[in-house]
Amino acid sequence: MKGRLIAACLLAVLTAGCGLRAGADSANTLHFVGPEDPKTFQPVIDGFQAKHPGVKVDYSQIPFDTLNSTLQQRLAAGDDGIDVYTVDQPRVSALAARGFLADLSDWKDRVKQAALPAQYEVNEHRGKLWSVPIWTSDQFLFYNKTLLKKAGVEPPSSDPAKRWTWEQTAEAGRKAQERGGAQWALIPEQIEQYYQLQSLPESLGGGSGVTGPDMLTPALTTDGWIKAMTWYRDLFAQGLAPRGVGSFQTSPLFAEGKVAFLAGGPWNVGTLAENKDVDWGVAPYPYFAGGKQVTPHRLLVLGHQPGLQEAAARPRVPRVRRTRPRRQPAHHQGHHRHPGQPGRLRALPAHPRGARRRQQRGRQHDHDVRRRPHRGRPPQVRRVHPVRGHHDQDVRRHPQRRRPQSPAHPGHPAGHHGLGPPAMTGPTTGPAAKSPAVTGTPRRRVGRPVLVSLAFLAPALVALLVLRLLPAGMAVVSSLYHTSLLTGRTSFVGLENYAALFADPTFWQSVRVTLLFSVVVNPLQIAAALALAVLFTRRFGGVRFLRALVILPIAVPPAVSAAVWSVAYRPDGLLNSVLRVLGVPEQPFLTSPGQALWSLIVLLSWIGVGYWMMFLIAGLQDIPATLYEAAAIDGASAWHRFWHVTLPLLRRPLAFVLVADTVSNFLVFAPVQMLTNGGPEGSTNLTMYDIFTRAYTVGDLGLAQAEVMLLVLLVLAVVVVQFRLLRGKD
Fold first, then answer.
1. CA–CA dist 612, 51 (Å, integer)
2. Beta pairing partners, 382
3. Cis ω for the linkage preceding 90 (within 30 of 0)
4. Residue 88: how many CB atoms within 10 A of its CB?
5. What is the mean pLDDT of the chain?
6. pTM over 0.85
7. For residue 176, what pLDDT is reported?
8. 570 contact partners, CB below 8 Å, separation of at least 6
9. Are 528 and 605 in contact (CB under 8 A)?
């Protein structure tokens, strides 16, 4: 109840901060995002809306497995569709440091009264309150009464003093498999979450797994960790727990009656209570025999984005469309004012069409003169006219035909040829007489086409500077510092980050895995894309439909593709079902160190082949059909036409596809995070995921930035080698 009161108070203060008040317009909406079932917060939301009838609370549920990554992406993008959101407590300091949480220090006293001291303290960072607690999720042991009864096993007691050990639980689950019809014996619900696995070695005295003043030094080789993780490994090796199942799939397996024991959190109680098909019970969380009783718990808190009050109070300024006055044509005016020189006037012909043509030819000639100065006239006396006739162009092209210069007189400027009407009228003294267009070094003026080109290029240049060059420079500087997200301290360390990486076996393992991944996936994707491109450029029935099917995975986000393939890779998924039909044993896929990387390669090839195929199809369509006809007349076979006609003329598109595919495969991240988390045993720990782990799991931004710089150098080296190998005569 305290947690719900805190949530209601927080919603009220956020409403005040957003400028929303009771009795306001019904369009005022407070966006609330969290991983919990909407029924969990509905009583709080109903009470709040009853108290503030002018405000509507819109709750959106995000799966817990993708909560942190989704919030990080949406908050970093400045998503204004998130006002209040659930925060995983270990990430409070990181979100506060990045400016994604508002300071709630004014509510310290009220939160202290409503929460336990331990719940309150973890919400502070550098003396300020950034979030408020909702609840602490102590975990329990759920068991299937029907399966245990069939196996003749007495269920565990609900008395904490009589809690079972892990050894007892695993043995009872084994009997439920053998005699009770259970498919699995025991499943930890959050199977890949560190905080749940941490309780196992802690029970054996192995510690939390980290040590040091900043808690950044791994300590996973103690006896407690080795013994606990050996027992945990045997759960899967002996078939007691399923391989390749994510945390979002474990509780549904228990709810379907396939699992004897589930070690999970209290959020399952509501779902299981509505399930009439499973007879279940709850017991205290187990511990290891001879060890201490340790229960994993996770604290969920609430926070909101900063700047909401300022955004609501900021007045809206209507956008005024500016119009440019229409220029009046100068035709039939008799004189035209020379641009940039108020005193100079030039006579124009009476016919506007002839003047326009001569003016265009004169501009083109001026462009040529600026690019190639003529040898017959020194640059310092070169004259530039906005209007020029045919004879002027002919003289500049043929210096030997140059007409003799006539002496200057008051009616003609110095150097006038003396033929035809004077080129300039008006005073010969003052600013006009000293014009650089007549004597001295010419002053280069930026033409209108250049300004228009710069205007169109300006957004791209600004984006290149802000999004590419500036972050690259900041990354170089950051790699020379040690920055901890946990403590917030920053210190200059020079090249120590690079030295630490070179001495880290995990870094070298990630480099080896990344290179192996690129060496395999790049040729595979390009070969498949080229074969499909050649096939789909031919005419046959259904070619457009088949081409659309191959291109379809491009429209699916990589995260969604990874989720689909995770279901296919499950032990009871589509792929293993097909293998069973064919008489092939089930494969572990993502849970096998020898198959996990290859499983990712298949997934990424499925995503990328259609994309690169489009570029190659465009290149194939640019090859003239007459070349193939000539080769066929000469008796060349289909293979010879492909080898001697198609490949040479497709060299440029292939070079682009190869380089772009190489760079994109070096930056693969989302499938690794969603499917394997770099495992098992580091077999899929690609460099990008290793960088993410160092930055946001370990909390060492400087070390992560140093690894980013090394990855950039590695990619540049590979791309340079590719360009040199593909370089040839045009």
1. 57
2. none
3. no
4. 17
5. 75
6. no
7. 92
8. 242, 244, 245, 249, 576
9. yes
